[in-house]
Amino acid sequence: MRHRPNILHFFVDQQRFDTIGALGNPIIKTPNLDRLCETGVAFTNAFSPSPVCVAARCSMIYGQYPMNTSCYSNAPEQESNKETFMAALTDVGYRTHGIGKCHFTPDPYALRGFQSREVQEEMGARSLENEPYLKELHDRGYKHILEPFGMRGEMYYIPQPSQLPADVHPSQWVGDRSIAFIKEQGNSDDPWYLFSSFIHPHPPFTPPSPWYKLYRAPQMPLPNVPADFESLQTYVNRCQNRYKYRDQGIDQNLIRCMKAFYYACISFVDYQIGRVLDALRSTGQLDNTLIVFTSDHGELLGDYNCFGKRSMHDGSVRIPMILSMPGRFEGGEVVDTPVSLIDLAPTFLNIAGTSISTHKLDGVDLADVMSEASKREMVFAQHSYSEANVLNGVVPIRAEYWENPDLWRAAMSQYMAVTRDWKYFYSAPDNKEFLFDKITDPNETRNKAGNPFYADILASARKSLIAHLKSGGEVAGIDGDTWRRFDPPEFPDNPDAGLLVQDVHTPWAGTVPGY
After folding, report:
1. pTM to 2 decimal places
2. pLDDT tens digit string along 194-223?
3. Which CATH number is 249's domain given?
């Protein structure tokens, strides 16, 4: 009989914090996530350490903030000799396996401590080698599908039914392979860690038939667009609206259709989670398994008339996080103490009875948060748009930044500090502070920075965030006890400058003959 618990880690891409039925969404259907909320613990103030895919995942696997991983964006990660929590688990006898999207860069097939992986990445491939999902599509006769994850580029934010049937949809494949792994491990005495990682609900929003009919556009609520929404936008919001083809006017019916298809993607993933949990139960492993569900970041989905991620607004940076495990995370509790993806590494390592030797973790065990043994009150985030910015090839970068990459990173950074009561963030490209009262203004409709009645709270939040950054040597954006001011970056007037061109190529992709 196993003594060390298994770890089943469900991970999704770009799912907002407010998309679980049991946690207050009256429209979305998530019966399996609802059951996890009923049996486990929901951390309702969970945040991404960097609201973008690569940087968030990097922080998660190393248990550190971006200032300590040196990964701030979707740019390729730097070489690192640091140990991931997967490697630490492998070293103490865990069978570690990853299924689906890892978004490792620059090598998408890297193991990073996993013993094995079954890769599914939405950016395509030039060969079938190491691409089991694409190989299955090829072998089953789906060579006519050039973009199996949906059309990006011009259609990135256009809801589109999947060209694939449900039984070969990317989310179904992750569910199928996760079930196969769990059944295989049912015959082993070794503990295991499974990373079951879904691309959805990351755009394009492409649920299969009949799931795309589960929600209808006229039933969807409109997004959160306060009266002074333009004052709440930042440079990165405007960049994303441009390159995702969403800056030429607002179509509310289209936005409601986006939300309907986005919800359908989430419900289809929820269905896969239910199938995997059934396999866990039927193989007798449920009572000895820590189950985790969370996301790398959220999706603005029209809030403030903005779309995408990379923002410190709640729709982008705040994430769902549910843990369930008999005797440790149970009872249907709801915890509103701020937590972060960096807290997963110490949580996993502590239940496995091991640690990471190469570096100090920035996170804390979520069991200590729940029991209030941890006295931490604030978590942080940082994202820099200095790399992987589609405008970098459109707007010239000043010479001083080429000579000082740290300064360029700081000039394009957003920094956040958040407690149970307040959120503070600073956007360096805008030279602008934001302060939101999470208790009286949970939808973040009014910026309290600059309001004289909140001057003391603003100063305290600024001080805490700057002290945090200084502790990690992240000082290029700091001038003494305040923020360094930068010249605002240019934004091109040409409405076609900086649009997304991100075609996905399958190994069998070709051209239209004669054209």
Report:
1. 0.97
2. 999 999 999 999 999 999 999 999 999 999
3. 3.40.720.10
